[in-house]
């Protein structure tokens, strides 16, 4: 999830529905313009909620005696929920309308918040994260398409830049804002494992109201197509390019997963800096850097994005590892920001590459496959690090992770060089 980022992945299969044709009056234009910002805020709130637990995991570890491994399992439950939702429900709003999917998706987030507020045991924590992922998979797909349609209705014929920048800020930026808010509340307000969720229950309920006030953009079909899960295919002409893009997505999400699962615990443990605000700020810095980098590189051609993304991760993750070995917070943060920049730009390049190579009729399948593999990158490396920490230190596990990531990045570079999708060409106006 971001510049369009992973929001572009979700939106691709939902950007060609039966859009209603609003009457071009000043009132309707104003309603769609207002709706654009209401949906943006709802989107940001949902994405922020999904990362609220990141700076709180060390508190759960201290309260219930969780190991790092168990934290990564709880985190992975979220990725499982997103993948299930993406495959089963991410495309349904094309048939029934955006609001009929977005409102229930936000309601799922409220249910997840209620589970967190129930003084949860480990099974309830796992369920809460799974429910969060189920809702986020629906939110990201639907909200991104909704924003695109509202922007088009409000400013027909205008550049897509506003849509792209705002969707980036809501999606990846929201992922960074959540830990920052949760860390601040956990640091300075009573009941650190309850207050952040109470605040987001209010925000999520307000988001549901905002969606209800926004005009629908999709005409519900009287005769709906036969339901089937989102199709996934890797057969899109340039096999090397597709494999390279999938590996790039996996590597990028692996960095994001690292910072939302393992990094906050390391800051509080190995660095002996128990500040929840600092833990949240570390996660915010990584996602914020990714969002800003995606926006600033929006007009660059794909080959340049690939090189910048590879360089950012290849320099950032070893710098982060150096900070871990030396217990140097500055090096840790600098490495995290560089890795975030690299992950964000490389992910954007992967999305643009797949979108360009796939035939329009099969673009949804192509991007769904990319996103599925990317979310495996979000969960599998984090769980792998968690398993490794049962027998070795976190720093040793991260050393192994860094080595494997550098090997993967080398493979990505070789595959992109062999592919046809990222050879130098005249860049499109969209910058994808």
Structural class: mainly alpha
Distance between the termini: 16 Å
Oligomer: single chain
Annotation, overall tally of beta strands: 0
Largest sheet: none
Low-confidence stretches: 1-17, 423-432
The CATH topology assignment is Growth Hormone, Chain: A
Roughly how many Å is the radius of gyration?
20 Å
Question: SSE order, as H and E?
Answer: HHHHHHHHHHHHHHHH
CATH architectural arrangement = Up-down Bundle
Count of DSSP helices?
Answer: 16
Principal-axes geometry comes out as globular
Strand content: under 5%
Percent range of helical residues:
over 70%
How would you portray this structure in words?
The protein is mainly α. The protein has helices spanning 5-12, 26-50, 57-64, 68-88, 93-96, 99-117, 122-154, 161-188, 195-212, 239-261, 263-268, 276-296, 302-326, 329-357, 363-388, 394-418. Residues 1-17 and 423-432 have low confidence and may be disordered.
In short:
The chain is mostly helical and 432 residues long. It has helices at residues 5-12, 26-50, 57-64, 68-88, 93-96, 99-117, 122-154, 161-188, 195-212, 239-261, 263-268, 276-296, 302-326, 329-357, 363-388, 394-418. The radius of gyration is 20 Å and the shape is globular.
Features:
single chain, 432 residues, Growth Hormone, Chain: A, 74% helix, disordered N terminus
Helices and strands in order, then pairings?
Elements: H1 5-12, H2 26-50, H3 57-64, H4 68-88, H5 93-96, H6 99-117, H7 122-154, H8 161-188, H9 195-212, H10 239-261, H11 263-268, H12 276-296, H13 302-326, H14 329-357, H15 363-388, H16 394-418
């Amino acid at each position: 999830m971001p510049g369009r980022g992973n929001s572009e992945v979700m939106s691709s299969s939902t950007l060609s529905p039966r859009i209603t044709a609003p009457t071009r009056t000043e009132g309707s234009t104003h309603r769609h313009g207002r709706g654009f910002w209401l949906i943006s805020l709802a989107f940001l709130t949902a994405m922020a909620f999904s990362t609220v637990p990141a700076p709180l995991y060390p508190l759960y570890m201290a309260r219930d005696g969780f190991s790092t491994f168990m934290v990564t399992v709880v985190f992975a439950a979220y990725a499982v929920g997103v993948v299930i939702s993406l495959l089963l429900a991410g495309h349904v709003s094309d048939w029934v309308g955006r609001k009929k999917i977005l409102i229930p998706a936000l309601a799922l987030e409220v249910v997840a918040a209620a589970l967190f507020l129930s003084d949860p045991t480990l099974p309830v924590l796992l369920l809460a994260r799974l429910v969060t992922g189920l809702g986020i998979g629906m939110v990201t797909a639907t909200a991104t398409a909704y924003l695109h349609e509202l922007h088009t209705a409000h400013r027909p014929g205008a550049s897509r830049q506003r849509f792209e920048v705002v969707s980036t800020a809501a999606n990846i930026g929201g992922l960074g804002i959540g830990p920052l808010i949760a860390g601040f509340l956990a640091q300075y307000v009573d009941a650190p494992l309850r207050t952040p969720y109470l605040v987001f229950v209010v925000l999520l309920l307000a988001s549901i109201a905002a969606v209800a006030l926004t005009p629908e953009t999709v005409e519900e079909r009287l005769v709906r197509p036969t339901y089937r899960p989102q199709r996934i295919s890797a057969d899109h002409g340039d096999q090397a390019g597709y494999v390279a893009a999938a590996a790039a997505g996996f590597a990028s999400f692996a960095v994001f997963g690292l910072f939302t699962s393992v990094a906050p615990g390391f800051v509080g443990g190995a660095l002996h800096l128990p500040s929840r605000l600092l833990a949240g700020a570390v996660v915010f810095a990584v996602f914020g850097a990714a969002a800003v980098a995606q926006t600033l590189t929006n007009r660059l051609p794909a080959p340049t994005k690939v090189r910048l993304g590879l360089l950012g991760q290849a320099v950032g993750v070893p710098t982060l590892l150096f900070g871990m070995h030396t217990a140097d917070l500055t090096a840790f943060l600098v490495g995290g920001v560089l890795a975030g920049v690299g992950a964000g730009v490389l992910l954007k390049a992967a999305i643009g590459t797949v979108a360009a190579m796939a035939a329009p009729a099969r673009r949804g399948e192509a991007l769904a496959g990319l996103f599925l593999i990317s979310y495996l990158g979000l969960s599998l490396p984090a769980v792998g690090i968690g398993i490794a920490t049962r027998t070795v230190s976190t720093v040793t596990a991260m050393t192994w992770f860094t080595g494997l990531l550098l090997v993967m990045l080398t493979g990505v570079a070789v595959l992109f060089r062999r592919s046809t999708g990222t050879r130098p060409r005249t860049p499109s106006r969209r910058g994808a």
